[in-house]
Write a structure and sequence with these properties.
This protein is an alpha+beta fold. It has three domains: about 25-125 and about 135-240, no CATH class; about 250-415, no CATH class; about 605-1005, YVTN repeat-like/Quinoprotein amine dehydrogenase (Methylamine Dehydrogenase, Chain H, 7 Propeller). Helix content is about 45%, strand content about 15%. α3 (about 80-105) packs antiparallel against α6 (about 210-275), α4 (about 155-170) runs antiparallel to α5 (about 180-200) and α5 (about 180-200) runs antiparallel to α6 (about 210-275).
Length: about 1000
């Protein structure tokens, strides 16, 4: 739980109980400022809760390490992981004791110191029967070294990094299982530990300073994430990894046990067989038989013994891991049983074949024994060779290739050799050419036979056609005599059939008539002239002319039929549907208006300085709403004399307003070269600096640009020197001192730092800087945690760093009070502002944390925080959501809280008018380009606003404002055209009115 989350929960509990954040158990009256309650009690409780959460995380990790050690005892070669886990537990116990001592110094009322003996309360006490027996080293419990000191923090963190890597190496010595989650979490933790240890070496001798102690306490939150990830990974490893490793080791042991059983059985077979030949020693053949069988017996016995030896070695907890054993020992234990067994089988087979010949067995028996023995030996040799080759390929290519892949590549390489290639491909080519020649010859023969057969068939067909045509001629003349009178009839064939429609509705002829194949039917149906009721022409013509006319009429009718069909299809077709566009109407909602509200224990603060501040702060309200810019307001600042207010925006303009009862636009400063990130008034209020991305512009209060200084480097911020004769430009790891003409006076370099802001004391002796550490002294970078940030006190006269304060939050701004005794440091995101006191010891400055200004709920702060009120007695800061917090500087009590609903927009920055003590006045900038002026209105204005029923937060000072216009009094833009939009993104649509470009939108998206 972070600091702010704990405070949020605590504040919720207090609100439920009906108590404000600033509370007291008794309703007493505070007589002076010493009675004002502070948030110290809350910080004590939150800090103690953070340490207790860290302690629980350490305890959980220690418990998982203990469970892992118990589970790992079942594994072979587990002594290394057991010893490393015990060493890691001891280191964690020592770090936990150091962090407890650190937390006890910071929060003495909530965190108690714990003696070293309490860390060893879980030690195994020996029983009375075994008083002299010591527990093994791998089961010892963690202890705390007596000589531990807070100055040992860097050394302990570095040792912890070494211990976690040793634990990881021992864990990876089990090749049966590899957990990437454990590796990633431990490696990330090791990287951050080395980074923290390297950074903390710069604070040697300062580990009892409160500032460094708070940084160490904040590191517990960063370490907590690593501890949780390692604990979760170890839990998964115990559930999955240990059983997997156990199964793999058991499987390997089972193989050796099976091998030992087979070797023992085979040795018994060999010994039994030797009884038939051990007395046969006369001939050389008989001697050879005995020699092979004796050798087989020796190999089988060695195989059985070596298998049992390897089984015992694999199951031993104290055995060395594989990479720490000599290669010949490893080969002898793992490979010799199988090799000996194979050699024993081969020798027995050779002796058996020779025994068949020496005992003068039947030739068939000798032949079969020899053949089958050779076949089995060949298979055994082939399989053994394949097995050895697979092992060799695996070791050579690290498992990236299979043996079959290597054989295929070898085959391709062999076939690519010139001689081998000719032997393989030339015979194939010759065979292919011969086959092609044979195919061509056979095709020619087939073609000749086909032509001869077709010629003969045509001749036979010709003779048959001549005979049939003579017969058809006689029959056709008779048929023509019968049909001609019907064709020359004066009556129309179909007098009632109408003509086809001109509109293309399709033919009226039946489809069956079109498909009729007979000539007689065609002459009746497709005669177009008979369709018109006229007599057929050419009735006096002969049979030849009548046949031609009938054929022509049939063709004409078919053409008309097709045209009519296409016209019908077009007539029946529907027009394509035209898509209809749907339109939607956008609606606009009216925003709700709300007033400011603040809850505070006013009745507890009477008769004190703070009691007088609360009513004045509650009376603050928005008196003017200025439409200053067309884009986000990046920064604003009142001049030291209180006469002017300067603002800067992402619309590439800066506006100078004249301060008064009614603010008016004094000058608009054009910045066409880039965005304005900061405005800074000189101490006398006569000169204004505007910071660009890579330069600085110097303006007079009347808006005259005196100088444009191009730095050609990214400028982070600018700050005036107290006398106003020069200013400082923060550029990466350098601070450049320049005069108003841009001439470089001096440079101050900060190694390995990315500076963000600086401030100079009134005597120009010390320079206060805030920045991010880019790398440690050893060049290390964080792997997962946040980078270290520093608040630096630099002696300008000695040009030396006198004090460094490490912080984890993203520090961005630092402001000095008028008395130079305290500095206000602002952070990004949800980190609250802090007040640091500058202590002077023997001409040396040192920073110490005075207050942390806590809000009621976690808030995303926007822009830098400011001092306010008389003699900088107030601290105010704005939230991105639109709320404003005002604290008392001395007591860190939250005096006033303006809620976001009262403002009606997101805030980006805030500035206090330090020249006006009565009434209070400050300004806020927002995303929509508006600037609101907050002050205490005159008593005469309150009744008027009540009569008009206008909320004071929306009151304007524009005398020409009408109901149709916006309530903001917008000054004329740079180009003489008034343009008002609701968001910075809308400015891109008005290319002629505003100089916004794509880079503005991109930068706006990063906010």
């Amino acid at each position: 739980m972070s600091l702010l989350d704990a405070l949020h929960e605590l504040s919720k509990e207090q609100e439920l109980e009906g108590r404000p954040l600033i509370y007291s158990n008794e309703r007493s009256q505070f007589e002076d400022d010493r009675d004002v309650p502070t948030v110290d009690e809350h910080l004590q409780q939150v800090g103690a809760d953070a340490f207790n959460k860290f302690q629980r995380r350490m305890t959980n990790l220690d418990q998982e390490l203990r469970n892992f050690a118990n589970a790992a005892r079942q594994l072979g070669s587990s002594v290394g992981i057991l010893c490393s886990s015990v060493q890691l537990r001891e280191r964690l116990a020592q770090l936990l004791w150091l962090f407890r001592e650190n937390a006890a110094d910071l929060f003495p009322r909530k965190v108690q110191r714990q003696p070293r003996e309490m860390f060893t309360e879980t030690r195994i006490h020996p029983t009375p029967k075994r008083k002299r027996q010591r527990a093994p080293s791998h089961v010892a419990n963690p202890t705390v070294v007596e000589s531990l000191d807070p100055e040992d923090f860097p050394e302990q963190l570095e040792s912890l990094a070494h211990d976690v890597i040793t634990f990881l190496d021992c864990l990876n010595e089990f090749p049966e299982f590899n957990d990437e989650a454990v590796n990633a979490s431990i490696l990330s933790f090791e990287g951050d530990l080395k980074y923290w240890a390297s950074c903390l070496k710069a604070y040697d001798g300062q580990f009892r300073y409160p500032a460094v102690q708070r940084y160490l306490h904040d590191l517990t939150t960063e370490m907590g994430g690593h501890l949780d990830s390692i604990t979760a990974a170890l839990s998964v490893f115990i559930e999955i990894g240990v059983p997997t490793i156990r199964f793999a080791q058991k499987h390997a042991s089972q193989n050796l046990l099976n091998l030992s059983t087979v070797a023992t059985f085979f040795s018994a077979v060999t010994a039994t067989t030797m009884q038939f030949s051990y007395q046969m020693t006369e001939t050389p053949l008989e001697k050879a038989v005995n020699a092979f069988w004796f050798i087989s017996l020796v190999f089988s016995i060695q195989a059985a013994v070596n298998s049992l030896l390897g089984l015992t070695w694999k199951q031993a907890m104290y055995r060395s891991p594989g990479h720490r054993v000599p290669w010949w020992v490893l080969i002898w234990i793992k490979r010799s049983p199988l090799v000996f067994l194979v050699a024993s089988v081969a020798c027995f087979s050779m002796g058996l074949v020779l025994f068949a010949y020496s005992s003068k067995q039947d030739p068939v028996t000798r032949t079969l024994t020899s053949v089958f023995s050779a076949f089995s030996c060949f298979g055994l040799a082939a399989v053994s060779t394949w097995f050895i080759s697979e092992r060799w390929i695996f070791l050579r290519h690290s498992g990236q290739k299979w043996l079959a892949d290597v054989l295929s590549e070898t085959k391709i390489q062999v076939c690519s050799a010139p001689g081998i290639k000719w032997i393989i491909y030339e015979p194939r080519a010759l065979v292919w050419r011969v086959r092609q020649w044979c195919q061509r010859r056979s095709r020619i023969v087939r073609e000749k036979l086909s032509r001869l057969t077709s010629r003969t068939a045509r001749r036979l067909k010709r003779f048959s056609t001549i005979a049939s045509s003579a017969t058809e001629k006689v029959d056709g003349s008779d048929l023509e005599d019968q049909t001609l009178p019907s064709c020359n009839s004066p009556d129309p064939v179909s007098p009632s059939r109408p003509r086809m429609s001109e509109a293309g509705t399709g033919p009226l002829l039946p489809v069956a008539s079109v498909r009729s194949p007979t000539i007689a039917t065609s002459t009746v149906t497709f005669d177009s002239r008979t369709t018109l009721g006229e007599p057929a022409a050419g009735t006096d013509s002969g049979p030849s002319g009548s046949a031609k006319a009938r054929f022509k009429n049939a063709v004409h009718s078919v053409i008309m039929l097709r045209q009519g069909t296409s016209s019908t299809s077009r007539g029946l077709g529907l027009p394509p549907r035209v898509p209809r566009r749907q339109r939607t109407n956008s609606t606009e909602g009216n925003g709700s208006k709300g007033g400011t509200s603040s809850e505070g224990p006013v009745h507890l603060l009477k008769a004190s300085r703070v009691a007088a501040l609360v009513p004045r702060l509650r009376a603050l309200e928005t008196t003017q709403d200025l439409a200053a810019h067309q884009a986000l307001v990046r920064h604003l600042q009142f001049s030291p004399n209180g006469k002017f207010l300067a603002t800067s925006s992402w619309d590439r303009t800066s506006v100078i307003f004249r301060v008064g009862e009614s603010f008016s636009s004094h000058r608009v400063l054009a910045q066409p070269s880039g965005f304005v990130g900061q405005v800074a008034w000189s101490p006398n209020g006569s000169t204004l600096l505007t910071k660009l991305n890579r330069g600085v512009k110097v303006w007079t209060e009347d808006g005259v640009c005196k100088k444009t200084i191009d730095r050609r480097r990214t400028v982070q911020s600018v700050a005036w020197l107290p006398a106003g004769e020069a200013f400082l430009s923060v550029e990466s790891s350098e601070v450049v001192k320049m005069d108003l003409n841009g001439q470089i006076i001096d440079k101050y370099h900060f190694d390995r730092m990315m500076l963000h802001d600086v401030a100079v004391t009134q005597d120009c002796q010390w320079l206060l800087c805030v920045g991010t550490l880019m790398a440690s002294s050893d060049g290390l970078h964080p792997s997962k945690s946040r980078a270290e940030k520093q608040i630096i006190v630099y002696n300008l006269r000695k040009k030396d760093i006198e004090n460094r304060v490490p912080v984890l939050h993203d520090v961005r701004d630092i402001t000095l009070a008028r008395d130079d005794l305290v500095a206000l440091v602002s952070y990004e995101n949800k980190a609250p502002p802090q007040l640091w006191k500058i202590d002077i010891f023997k001409d040396s400055a040192r920073l110490s944390l005075r207050h942390t200004y806590m809000p009621k709920v976690p808030v995303d702060f926007a822009g830098p925080s400011y001092f306010g009120g008389k003699k900088d007695q107030l601290v105010l800061c704005a939230g991105k959501a639109g709320d404003i917090h005002i604290w008392d500087r001395e007591s860190a009590a939250l005096l006033h809280h303006v809620r976001a609903q009262a403002l009606g927009g997101d805030l980006t920055c805030i500035a206090w008018n330090r020249a006006m003590e009565q009434p209070f006045m400050f300004a806020t900038g927002s995303h929509d380009g508006g600037v609101r002026i907050w002050t205490t209105p005159k008593d005469s204005l309150a009744p008027a606003m009540m009569d008009l029923n206008i909320p004071p937060s929306r009151t304007t000072t524009n005398p020409v404002n009408t109901p149709e216009n916006t309530p903001r009094s917008r000054p004329l833009s740079l180009y003489g055209i008034q343009q008002q939009t609701e968001s910075p993104e809308e400015e891109t649509t008005f290319e002629l009115q505003g100089p916004m470009d794509d880079s503005a939108g991109a930068e706006s998206g990063n906010i």
